[in-house]
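re the bet — no i am not wrong, look at it urself. input seq straight from the record:
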Amino acid sequence: MRLTTRIKHWFLPLAATGLFSLTGLVQAEDPLKIGLVAALSGQSAKSGEAITRGLTIAIDEINAKGGILGRKVELLRRDDESNPNKGLLAARELIQREEVAVLFGGLDTPVSLAIVPLANSMKFPFMAVWAAGTPITQNGADENYVFRVSAVDELVDEALVQYGIDEFGMEKPGMILINNPWGESNEKGFRKALESRDMEWAGIERVEGNDIDMVPQLSRLKDAGADSLLMVANVAPSAQIVKSLDRMGWDVPIISHWGPAGGRFSELAGENAAKVHFIQTFTFVEDQQGKGADVMAALKKRYPEIQDLADVTPAVGIANAYDAMHLTALAIENAGSTDGAAIRKGYYAITEHDGLIKNYLKPFSPDQHDAVGPEDYVFTHFVDGRIIPLDR
C-alpha cells in the first residue's frame, strides 16, 4: 500500500470523529424553538399580543439563566386570524417545518379544538393558554398531549352561576352564547350548574361573531322573564350585546365568561362596558407586590409603550402564558430532551413552581391536564379601559 493511501485511511476516522463533534456542537448551540398559534390580527389581536408578551418575558428570564437544556429559547409566532383551518395549517407548519419543541395555543376554542387531534396523533405537546373549552384537555385521547394553564368552561360556568346568585339574586337567567363550539361547551356547563340547583333558565339564544344587532335575541329573553344574562362571546359580539341592551333600555345584570377581556371591549361597548362582570385568572393591580411587581417591571422595560394598567390589558393572557412557559421549561428539563413523549412525562414530573397566578403543586397528572382551578378565578370589570377586580 502506498504511503499516501495509508495516511488517508488513518486520517479518515479522525476526520469523521471531528466532524461528528462539530455537528454536536452546532446542534447544542441551535435555539430551542417554541411555537405560538394565536389571533394576532383583528378584533382580538390584543389577546395574541398579551400571550406573546407573557411568553417573551418568561423566555427572557429562562435565557438569562442559560436557556433550556443549555440552549437559548426562541419564540416563533403564527396568526390564526381566529380561523380553525388557518390555525391547523399554522400548527402543522410550526411542528413539521420549523420543528418547534412545544406548541402554544391562543384565544379561540374552535381553533384549539382543530389542533388537538393533530397534537395527539403526532404525540406532540400542545399547551393551551387562553381557550377554555372543556374538551380541549378532556378530549378522550388514550395518550393526551394537550395541557392547559387557563380557565376551564365547565368550572367557569359553575363559578358564573354562583356569582349571579350571590351578587344579583339571580333566579331565572337567560343565556346568550356565541354560535360555535365554545358556546356549545358553555351551554353544557351552564345547564349542569343550573340543574344542580334546581334552577330554570329563560332561554338560550345564539349570536354570530359578526352580528351587529342582538335586539331580537335579547327581546326574546326579556319576554321570557330573564332576570340576568349569562354571556359567552368574544370582544366584538359582547360589545354589540351591550349596545343592543342600550338601544332596548333594558338594564339587566350581565355575568360573562372572559371573552370581553380579549381586545378593545371597553372602546367598542361604550360607557356601559363596566356593567359587564367577567371572570379572569389574574389581573394586575395598583401597588402590585411580589412576582407580579417583578413581571410588571419587566414588561415596562421590554415594552416601553406600557405605562399603566390599561396598557397590560388583558393581563390574563400575559399571566397564563408566563406561567405556562416556565412550567414547560421545567417539563423539558425533566424530560432531558425535546422528544414529545418524554416532555409529556416531564409535565407530570413537575413537583412545584412559584408562578404569577399561584404556587403550583404537582399541577399535572395523567388524570389532570389543567393547572388552574376555580379557586384561582377572580371577577373583574372594565373601568376607564382597565380591568379592575370587583370587591366581593
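see?? Residues 3-29 form the longest helix (27 residues). told u. also The radius of gyration is 24 Å. so pay up
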